[in-house]
Amino acid sequence: MLRTGTSLLALAALLVLPSVASPAAAQSRKAAAPAPAPTAADADAFVAKVEKEFYEFNLTANRVAWINATYITDDTDALAAEYGARGTEMAVRYALEAAKYQAIKDLSPDTRRKLDMLRSAITLPAPTRDGAAAALSEISTRLSSAYGKGKGTLNGKPISGSDIEAAMGTSRNPEELKEMWTSWHDNVGAPMRNDFARMTGIANEGARELGFSDVGTMWRSSYDMPPEEFAKLTDKLWEEVKPLYESLHTYVRRKLAEKYGAAVQDRSGPIRADLLGNMWAQEWGNIYDIVAPAGAGDLGYDTGDLLKAKGYDWKKMVETGEGFYSSLGFEKLPESFWQRSQFLKPADREVICHASAWDLDDKNDVRIKMCIKVNSDDFVTIHHELGHNYYQRAYQAQTLLYRNGANDGFHEAIGDFIALSITPDYLVQIGLLDPSKVPSEDKDVGLLLRQAMDKVAFLPFGLLIDKWRWGVFSGQIKPEHYEAAWNALRLQYQGIVPPEPRDETRFDPGAKYHVASSVPYTRYFLARLLQFQFFKAACDQAGWKGPLHRCSFYGNKEVGARLNKMLEMGASKPWPDALEAFTGSREISGKALMEYFAPLKAWLDEQNKGEAQGW
């Protein structure tokens, strides 16, 4: 993921709030002539001032955020909260001022776009009343740090979040899985409930000052279309891919029922969340061994095993990811990347292990923050996070407000579509896989199923996180119904249920990093679709003629050059322009994903004959 806390609109300088004027001053103003109406030149000057002040503040603020994420203490929490408050206050002040210029008719398109960005791109806006920004920042920092420090239990013993993630991918003991799932959600999520409700109230107050009905509406206003149209777009995209998810769900449910028996998992209805190999049931690839089809399911290799057999460590894994981008013509990462990134979990302090990519100086100080383990998941994650870094480097020549993705889904999709090219042929090219071990075409169902267990299984989860938050922000979901609404959406979209009943003393949404840290999540749903559009475009440009899922464009400089043209645009144009620059289309669509998995869909439907569909 991209570290949103380092984005220019989340960090800024301290606002001096207006004081109450004296009666004499008020009387004097009554006699004064009305201020002249702002002009287009005034708006241009305002935008230039904003970009200058943001730039001057960001480096220190980004360093504070980095230290807090990689060295969690009471002191770094306090510093992060202080700078977060400054950033929020500045961003809110500029958003309010930006609104004053938007009625000017002769604004340049560039200035109008930047004004719109200033007004709508704050993640958690604070109201201008005294103390509100500080309170909001303290709460959000506390929630994020609580997640980083969180622990569950396994066999009654404390276990960290990163270790639970790994253990839930390998354990096949339903009682262990239930204990890990329940303890993590109880220990991490439940204590956040009151803070989250208070944070929501303050942020909604700030959103209303900016002219939005609530924070969710403000988030949806950042996609170059009216917020209600964007909500409809996400529903339309979900309907395009839903049939594939339902087929996968039906097949996986049957396999789990055969593995564990009806007492643990029924052959009809929803799936028990903790059985899916992931703490949030968002990606299911870790249980591929349970669902692998006979014959076709034995791919003949596991990427994690290949890495270990070749003696890969964290550095070699990251160097290999860098090598993919270099093969497309991108410059190598700077030496500072290797000196300043966090690659491993330190033994002596608390850190946030959740993988993220950072750009500290809007120039070349790019980093990743991970707790790398030598396995296939982290190998893919490295390719993903580096995608953020190369995007950041590509648009550094843009003015400050345009140093971002065309939309937030683009930023997440770049590394993901590169990672789709981690095919058997690619593994051969980099010396990880023996050519004689490349799976034959009769293994394609297995290859596709393994991909779908992550890519397709994620789709409803990627959508429902913000569906829930939009409802919370709008007031449709009340604090007394947080947990019930969360579980209802997980049942509706994912077809899953928790391993035990959950009442309103719980707060399971908080057990997900992006909720605890207030990171908007629809970007990941969009990215799952965009990555296949980007991938198909790259394969077409490379002249690939075989099945789409076997394509690798590793080493193709033409693809790299066309990709870089899109990346260099940053956020300077509406996202349809950026999409068109690389893919030729102006519409986000699920069609490329459905084409990629079409052979699997046909196979799943054959396997599911006679099974109960849906839940």
Classification by helices and strands: mainly alpha
Number of helices: 26
What is the radius of gyration?
24 Å
Spans where pLDDT lies below 50 across 5 or more residues: 4-29
Span between N and C termini? 31 Å
Q: Specify the helix fraction band.
A: 55-70%
Residue fraction in strands = under 5%
Mean pLDDT: 92
Shape: globular
Strand order of the largest sheet: 1-2
Q: In this structure, how is the largest beta sheet organized?
A: 2 strands, antiparallel
Number of strands: 6
What attributes does this structure have?
615 residues; mainly alpha; two-stranded antiparallel sheet; two-stranded parallel sheet; 26 helices; 6 strands; 57% helix; 3% strand; globular
Mind sketching the topology for me?
Elements: H1 23-31, H2 40-70, H3 74-101, H4 109-120, H5 132-149, E1 151-154, E2 157-160, H6 161-170, H7 174-189, H8 193-209, H9 215-220, H10 227-260, E3 271-272, H11 288-291, H12 303-309, H13 314-327, H14 335-340, E4 356-359, E5 366-369, H15 376-394, H16 408-419, H17 424-429, H18 444-455, H19 458-474, H20 482-494, E6 496-497, H21 513-516, H22 522-541, H23 557-569, H24 575-583, H25 591-596, H26 598-607
Parallel strand pairs: 3-6
Antiparallel strand pairs: 1-2, 4-5
